[in-house]
Amino acid sequence: MRIGIFGAGGMAEALGGQWSGHEVMVAARDRAKAERISARVGTWEETARASEVILLAVPAGAVTEVLASAGESLAGKVLIDCTNAVGPGAVLTVPGQAERIAAAAPDAHVVKAFNLCHVDVWRMTPPVFGGRPLAVPLCGSPEAVEVVSGLVRDIGCTPLNAGGLDRARLMEATMAFTVGLWFDGHDAQACFPPLAA
Ligand SMILES: NC(=O)c1ccc[n+]([C@@H]2O[C@H](COP(=O)([O-])OP(=O)(O)OC[C@H]3O[C@@H](n4cnc5c(N)ncnc54)[C@H](OP(=O)(O)O)[C@@H]3O)[C@@H](O)[C@H]2O)c1
């Protein structure tokens, strides 16, 4: 698959490394950082045009500007939103971040994914805890979720179709809630019983 990555920070490097079996192209404002992830580097627009799927891995505050730079080349592409609009104290600063991204790139197919776990988890090969592969919830259209499901399996995780993009704000709130618990030293996973129970 032809994967574009917007950004060359931690999430871009972690997931870009996991997807090295694909054709990965990176767009970032720092070309040297982009080249550390892939030899294929382009502008936002070139990278979007060359890709089937694009991982948006820039800070929430930079999203609008970056998407505007990619422009119409985003049309028809699957756009993975891993961004977390979160401020000090694990508080959401933008409710409905994925829907805001969909409004800024109306012809792309936005899927919320990979926002729940710290970047170090996405570097694990594979992310397995207590013998159980990490489950990755995905919110978006069924067709776009299917595409991203393959990329989730590629990193050894289990994709979960969590519904349409209107449910992405629940994932964003879940991130803020669980991060708040983790920062306070609590085990967020312990709050939930196994399915059988
Ligand atoms: N880190 C985590 O544990 C984690 C986990 C899940 C989701 N996320 C989300 O994933 C996204 C990326 O996080 P990250 O940890 O990879 O961040 P990061 O390491 O700080 O990297 C951010 C990238 O975005 C670029 N950038 C920053 N401002 C920009 C602007 N105004 N225009 C264009 N590019 C800009 C940076 O460029 P420069 O290098 O030039 O500054 C860098 O390439 C964020 O939205 C974050 O909320 C992070």
Give a structural overview.
This protein has 197 residues and is α/β, with parallel strands linked by helices. Helix content is 37%, strand content 19%. The protein has one domain (2-186): 3-Layer(aba) Sandwich (Rossmann fold), CATH 3.40.50. It has helices spanning 10-18, 31-37, 44-50, 63-70, 97-104, 119-122, 142-154, 168-183; strands at residues 2-6, 23-27, 53-56, 78-81, 86-87, 91-92, 109-112, 128-129, 132-133, 135-138, 158-161. It has a 5-stranded parallel β-sheet, sandwiched between helices. Strands 5-6 form a two-stranded antiparallel ribbon. Helix 1 (10-18) links the parallel strand 1 (2-6) and strand 2 (23-27). The relative contact order is 0.14. Bound molecules: NADP nicotinamide-adenine-dinucleotide phosphate. NADP nicotinamide-adenine-dinucleotide phosphate is lined by residues 7-12, 28-30, 33, 57-60, 62, 65-66, 82-84, 115, 118-119. The site of NADP nicotinamide-adenine-dinucleotide phosphate (NAP) has 23 residues, from helix 1 and helix 4. InterPro entries: NAD(P)-bd_dom_sf (IPR036291), P5C_Rdtase_cat_N (IPR028939), STEAP_metalloreductase (IPR051267).
Q: Given the C-alpha coordinates, what overall shape results? A: globular
β-strand percent reads: 15-25%
Count of separate structural domains: 1
Overall residue-averaged pLDDT value? 97
**CATH topology description:** Rossmann fold
* Major sheet: 5 strands, parallel
- CATH top level is Alpha Beta
Order of strands in the sheet with most strands: 2-1-3-4-7
Query: What's the total number of strands?
Result: 11
**Which spans of ≥5 residues are poorly predicted at pLDDT below 50?**
none
Can you say what the CATH homologous superfamily is? Answer: NAD(P)-binding Rossmann-like Domain
- CATH architecture label: 3-Layer(aba) Sandwich
Ligand species: NADP nicotinamide-adenine-dinucleotide phosphate
Helix coverage percent: 25-40%
Count of helical regions = 8
Distance from N terminus to C terminus (CA atoms, Å) equals: 39 Å
Overall radius of gyration: 16 Å
What structural category do the secondary elements indicate?
alpha/beta
What letter string, H or E per element, gives the SSE order?
A: EHEHHEHEEEHEHEEEHEH
